[in-house]
Amino acid sequence: MKRLSVLLLVLSLLFLTAAGSEAAAKYKIKIHSVGNEEHASTPALKEFKKHVEEKTKGDVEVSLHLNASLAGDREATEAMQLGTIEAGIIGSSILATFEPSFNIFEFPFLFKDDATAKKLIDGELGEKLNAAIQKQDLRIIGYGVNGFRHTTNNRGPIKKPSDMNGLKIRTMENPIHIATFKLFGANPTPINFGELYTALSQKTVDAMECPLNLIYTPKFYEVQKYLSLTGHLYAVAPLTMSEIFFRSLPDEYKEIIIEGGKIYTEIQRKNTIADENNMLKLLEEAGMIVNDLTEAEKNEFKKLSAPVYDQFADKVGRDFLNEVIEANK
Length: 329
Known about the structure:
alpha/beta
């Protein structure tokens, strides 16, 4: 009886192991994000995960890796090209280092408002960019947005270009950004986003520029006093996927991924709008001094930044840049 019991136990374990193997996911998607749990993109990523796992009946397993826990944006993008990370939210400045046409988002004061930007992204502009980035073994499956970028610092309100004279400001490692802030009179210093809080607290830099949700959620209000609504750039947050991984999927799963990308986009954008309506109040409550700029004041910055259009037009193609300029008139 003892031997029979042991035999039955072994057979049961073998059966459970086999059943577990059959139930294991055939494909796994690790998603990189620099955002935290509070960021507008995170609930959208959770819905993407839910959609993909349910529709594939668990054949595709999605895991979220927030706070840049897998890698920095650039490293994650390189890993996607190799297929070792399957997806991630990658800003346009990083994508531009792989596909220069993404520099279209780096030209200051190009997009006149949120509605125009979204209309272009959801139309021919977004299609052209996606076709171009696929040649780099990357694919955009959802154009989330972070909205307009604004400026924070510890010196005082910024209302005119002279308020930036000599200001040591953190920028992304993008030549158009760097050239723009030099024209404003500032001293731009590229620093990895994950190191920015420390750099500000240690006064390595005295200023930064980011969308509102990336000012509030990492608690930059703890180390920055003034927020000026300069709105100098429009930030996108594309959910990007490894083209190598995407091509490895069965056609029906590709369709599910594309559907999931639409779900991500819709929810992420709604969250960003809701966040922006809340963020200014929360930042003021946290102690930041907020000032808006009039159109006339923004135009002073716009005039100063005009030379970068001619200087960097060839990065995206002059005809392409002119098309987007015309669409924003």
